[in-house]
Design goal:
101 residues, mainly alpha
Length: 101
């Protein structure tokens, strides 16, 4: 019974990890494209003197977003450590999905 549950967790973890990694990579590619277009438009408007960009404030906002994301990621790491069989297969599937996507 324990072995069946372990095999089930490993299988489901791998499948979910792969699909999550594949989806994340596709979404990140799209978001980076949108962000790049947005930044190009902002830089053009700044160059044309239609708007003025406060680069110091922009850097502060980006830094604070990175700090929030890293603090959330550390909490996720602790949860994953408590779910070793599922997390291991999920991690392998996630990496394969990120490479494939």
């Amino acid at each position: 019974m324990v072995v069946e549950q372990l095999v089930f967790q490993i299988g489901v973890g791998g499948i979910l990890g792969f699909s999550t990694g594949y989806t994340i990579k596709k979404i990140v590619k799209f978001l980076l494209l949108v962000l790049g277009i947005f930044m190009a438009i902002l830089l053009y408007l700044d160059y044309s003197r239609i708007i003025t960009i406060n680069y110091d404030r922009l850097a502060e906002v980006i830094y604070s977003i990175i700090q929030i994301a890293s603090s959330k990621a550390s909490g996720l790491q602790e949860y994953i450590k408590s779910q070793i069989p599922f997390a291991a297969s999920f991690s392998v599937g996630l990496i394969l999905g990120l490479k494939k996507g």
